[in-house]
Amino acid sequence: MYDFVVVGVGPAGARFSRRAADAGYDVLALEQGRLGEPLACSGHVSGDVWQYAGEGAREELLQNEVYGARFHVDGPGSDFEDFYKTEVVSNVIDRVGLDRHLAELAREAGAEVREEHTVTNVDEGDESVTVTVRGPDGVADVEAKMVAGCDGPTSRVRRDLDLPEPDELLHGVLGFSDEVDHGDRVDVHLTMPEFFAWRIPRGDAGVEYGLAASPGPDVNELFDDLVGATGYDVDVAKRCSGLIPVGPADSVTSHRGFLVGDAAAQTKPFTGGGILYGMRSADHAAREIEPDRPGTLGAYEAAWRDELATEIRLGHWIRRAYSLPEPVQRVGLKAFSGEIGVHMDRPTSVFSREHLASWLGRS
Ligand SMILES: Cc1cc2nc3c(=O)[nH]c(=O)nc-3n(C[C@H](O)[C@H](O)[C@H](O)COP(=O)(O)OP(=O)(O)OC[C@H]3O[C@@H](n4cnc5c(N)ncnc54)[C@H](O)[C@@H]3O)c2cc1C
Predict the structure, then answer these.
(1) Over the Cα atoms of the chain, what is R_g?
(2) Fewer CB within 10 A of the end CB, N or C, for the chain?
(3) What is the Cα 208 distance to its own chain's centre?
(4) 38 C-alpha to center of ligand 1: Å?
């Protein structure tokens, strides 16, 4: 019997596996495909990501450094307001490489990480959980004291444990051109229903064009418009898409199971980013949860919400601005543009001394 079976080895699953193995637990981590594939993420993160990585990772995975964002109310080529820092705001990284790196760290810590193993059922009992797994050698049942659902936005574990679904799933689409661009600004277009479109320079790795929108409109058509003749007018290859959960739900724990990362909708409502929130929550889970004591699941719920709930609540408020009438957006962007002191993962830093000093120092 394992202490933990971890379903899904993205950033959340890899991080939880590593920290739980470090704590001396027997961990089996199961990934349905190959690590990091298929790609459905921009890999645009704050520098905090390197705290979760090992030696040499930054040199291997960093593609570009970003100092700010140009916000457009309209599409490509339109006027913009510049928001920037004099230091690096965010990093553009190789996301597939990140997943492989984090999984390797989990292995080094002692977790058993298996690729091409799909979990097809989770049965929660009083004393243990039975996880059914389909792998290259057939179907087998695995017993564990606890199951960690780190299996992304459409989590099977969430469904089998009867845990509530996230409030909303946004639909994101990405495409990459082979333009070399070491620019230090991302472009953000507030033109999508309830969300936005973007252009991210990725250095030698090309330029990424992307968008996310609430379900309803045909996102592929919106993407064609973004990169087509009336938009950026570029040749885009390697298109991919994915879902972004926004929430989170009221509960992400059951009797012998819990969710971490996108499965728990631990994401930023105003950007959809979830790499760091998922890993921060994974650390809370590994620290708080004892597989022999289901009562400790409550401590995990409390700990991750304590750290992230206010940030997420404020993130929902920021996102509302994407749906304001265009003239109001223009006035708002103009008023707040210029040098900023905000941390991209912490919207509450808008109230920080650093940000207020930047803001008041203008004019
Ligand atoms: C278009 C788009 C752009 C994004 N850009 C950014 C960004 O720039 N920055 C950022 O921070 N976030 C971004 N995100 C969000 C980010 O990708 C997620 O928040 C992050 O991947 C969540 O990590 P996770 O480990 O929880 O889930 P995932 O990375 O989704 O990992 C879940 C893993 O579980 C596996 N799995 C699923 N079901 C099973 C099963 N039954 N059995 C076994 N394995 C299973 C999957 O194959 C997958 O590997 C973006 C998302 C999208 C869609």
Answers:
(1) 21
(2) C
(3) 17
(4) 10
